[in-house]
Structures are given as C-alpha cells and as structure tokens.
Specification:
Distance between the termini: 52 Å
Number of helices: 19
Oligomer: single chain
Low-confidence stretches: 391-440
Mean pLDDT: 80
Shape: globular
Helix content: 55-70%
Strand order of the largest sheet: 1-2
Number of strands: 2
Order of helices and strands: HEEHHHHHHHHHHHHHHHHHH
C-alpha cells in the first residue's frame, strides 16, 4: 500500500504529514508488534544506509540554517526527503526479512506496472485512464503538473513515472542477479531480463521519456558484453555498421511526433544553459544553498552571464535537471565527504550495480535522485539489493531440510538447490580445478 501511494499520490499530505509515510510507519509498527526483535535486526542490517541518511540530513540542516531558511520549511524538507527515505528503507527490509526479497520485488513491480498500464491507456487515448489520473489530483488536492501531451500513468508527472519505471527495472534486474548467484546459475543471457527491458522501453515510449531508453540501451550493451562475450564480439562489427542506419531511422521517426524520438525540443536545447548556470551558482556559493533550493529565483543576478547562451529561457522556468549539480547546490561541496562510504557500499554490492544504470542516466537529466528530491522509493530498491531473494516465509526458510530459494517455475528459469547442497545467497561456490595441489 505504501508503495502504491508513493506511485499514485506522491505529494498527498494531510496536515503537513505525507500520507504515504504514514502508511509506511503503520506497516513498521504492525511488523514490530509481531516481532520486536525484527526491528533490532533490521536496523543493524541497514545501519550503513541509515547513518548515511542521517549524516546528509545533518549537513543539509546546517547549510540551510547558514542560508537563513525558515525552520518550518527546513523541517518539512527533512521530513519529505530524509525521514521518508529512512522509513521506506526500514519497512522494505522488515518485509523482506519476513516474506523474502522476491515478494517485495513482485509487489513493487506490480504497483509500478499498474501505473504503466494506465500510461499506455492514456497514450492510445483511453479517456477513462485520464479520468482516473484527474480524479487522483482532485481528491489529493494536488497541483496539476501534467498535460495530455505526455502520459503520466498514475504518477503526478511523466518524469515521475519514468523514475518509477527505472526503479522497477532495477528491482527486476537485482532480483534476477541475486537468484542466479544463489543457485550458481551460469553467466548467460537471461530472457527474463531482456523481456523486462523491452516492456520498460515500451512504457517509456508511451510517456515520452528519452533518458531511460538511453540508459536501457547502454545497459543492454554492457549486459551483452558480460553475459555473452563471444556473441557480442561477433555482432560488434554489424552493430557498428548499423549505427548510420540508426541515425537515419531516428530522423524518420522524428516525423511520427513521438517525444522519445524528438531531439530538437526546448528541453534538449536548454540543457547546456542549465548546466553552466548550475556551475555558476555553485562557484558563487560553494557551501550550498540549503534544502528547498530553487534555482529559478536567482537567474536575475546572472542575466549578463545567461545572455551568452542561445537559449537562456529555461533557467527562469526549470530547475537544474541534473542530479549531481542539484546535490552540490543543496548541500555544498561538503557532500563530497560522503563519496568514500558510498563507494564502499557500491563495492560490497558490485554485482548488482549494473541494474541501476538506467536510473543513473535518468537522474542525470532530471531533478530526482537519492536525498535530492522527494524520491524515497529508491531506498526500497537499495533494501531489496541487500536482502535474500526468497518466496518462502522466514519460518519456512528456517525449517530443517529447506533451502532459502523457492522454486519459481512460472517466473524464473533458474534451477533450485538440492536440499543436501546449501549455498550462500551472496555468491556462487567456485569449484576447485582438478589440477589443484590442495586435496582438502
């Protein structure tokens, strides 16, 4: 329920309290009442990410106070960004501990899939799909930020839908990777992954989002090189020859009117101006502007600088549309001190990093991202990446003679473990070669 509320009513709040956060807190309390020790175990397991959230929150609060931001606004920003991120991280880890990571993945993908289905309906002109979105905006007193030129699904904007889609794809990719590691599956192309990427691109086309499709294309290239290196080497010359044909195809597809194939719109042309504007803002105030920073309020002080660009207009209408610049202008250069612990966490989960490539590409062209905007759902995926993938309940998994990986004949293509051959859920066991001198 908390995930579905986040997808469909992300900005809904009652008395200043986000409704989705209230649902998540309720879920935590219910699970804690059933097993109080579960809270302690989960907090210990995700302590690294919680400390990271706390550290960034303290830095953001300090920079905000130095910039004279109103205390009420500061508390609201801390609640929406940092507290919600911590709450969703804890809730996801608790549910995954009880039901298994696979259950969480399926629930998350189902919620985003419902929104994507509405987006497809809106794209083909189904009025009922638009009526549902309009009703949600009316009921939640939402400031309407979408038009009928781009399908938002159940999200409040088409860009928010793209963020949800990239996270859902990351959840599927992490899930398949962890299942393969758990059962020692051979490193080969996974048809479930290819199908997920195809469905993802279809939803992105319907919503008119380009950056996620670019991320998916880069993912497929790297994934193919890793999983099928021989076939990749054989196909590489043909792919290089097809690049000019792809350029011609893009030119012809621009006539279809689909935004995903349009490269010369105002959004694309204004990116360069926004990037240089963000760098100029950072140079003038390297300590950052604090939480709730709105770059559209400062453009008047940089009029002479902006007139050097052919299209300076976007700086008065849009935010920076770049995650890295948004973080640096929020928290200042002090945010860089959190880079080493983040790199350590990435190294510990190196096998699933590729799953986040479409999401990373997407946020580099938009204002979403971890601890930058109201994007707490990304911590759901972080928690999924840390938990074991199982459809069995914790009690069943703990029973003697059972493995931790459930059989997935209708969903997956990986074999299950034999009961006499348990393996770690972290990495497949490597067999010792016959020529090894060690005998024990």
């Amino acid at each position: 329920m908390a995930v579905l509320l986040s997808v469909a009513t992300m900005t809904w709040s009652i008395g200043g309290l986000p409704v989705r956060a209230a649902a998540a807190v309720a879920g935590i309390l219910v699970l804690a009442a059933g097993d109080p020790q579960l809270v302690v175990k989960v907090l210990y397991r995700v302590r690294g990410l919680l400390l990271l959230i706390l550290g960034v929150a303290l830095l953001g609060a300090a920079m905000s106070l130095l910039n004279g931001i109103d205390i009420v606004k500061l508390l609201r920003e801390l609640l929406e960004i940092h507290v919600q991120s911590a709450v969703f991280l804890i809730l996801t880890a608790m549910v995954a501990s009880v039901c298994g990571g696979t259950t969480v993945v399926l629930l998350f993908v189902a919620a985003v899939g419902i929104s994507a289905a509405f987006a497809l309906g809106q794209f083909v002109g189904v009025e009922a799909a638009w009526s549902v979105r309009d009703t949600l905006a009316r009921v939640t007193h939402e400031v309407v930020r979408y038009d009928r030129l781009r399908a938002p699904g159940l999200a409040n904007t088409a860009i928010a839908l793209a963020t949800h889609l990239t996270l859902a794809l990351a959840a599927v990719l992490v899930w398949r990777q962890r299942l393969g590691e758990a059962v020692g599956a051979p490193r080969r192309m996974d048809l479930a992954v290819v199908g997920a990427v195809a469905a993802f691109c279809l939803a992105c086309l319907a919503s008119g989002n380009r950056s996620p499709i670019l991320g998916a294309a880069l993912f497929l290239v790297i994934y193919s090189a890793v999983r099928a290196p021989r076939a990749f080497l054989v196909a590489s010359p043909f792919v290089l020859l097809a690049v000019p044909l792809a350029g011609l195809a893009m030119e012809s597809l621009q006539g279809t009117g689909l935004r995903a194939f349009t490269l010369g719109d105002k959004s694309t042309e204004g990116r360069e101006t926004l990037i240089y504007y963000g760098l100029e803002l950072l140079r003038d105030r390297p300590i950052g502007y604090g939480l709730g920073f709105d770059p559209t309020l400062y453009w008047g002080d940089y009029a002479d600088f902006l007139l050097r660009f052919s299209n300076p207009g976007p700086v008065s209408q849009f935010e920076l549309h770049n995650y890295a610049l948004t973080m640096l202008n929020y928290y200042g250069i002090g945010i860089l001190m959190f880079v080493p612990p983040v790199l350590i966490m990435m190294r510990r989960n190196a096998t699933v990093l590729l799953a986040f490539l479409p999401y990373i590409i997407h946020i580099m062209f938009h204002n979403y991202g971890p601890l930058a905007k109201n994007d707490a759902l990304v911590f759901v995926i972080f928690a999924i990446a840390m938990m074991p993938m199982s459809l069995r309940s914790r009690a069943a998994a703990a029973a003697p003679g059972h493995t931790r990986i459930a059989s997935l004949p209708a969903i997956g293509m990986y074999p299950t473990l034999r009961r006499s051959e348990p393996r770690s859920t972290l990495a497949p066991r490597r067999e010792r070669p016959q020529w090894s001198r060690r005998t024990v």
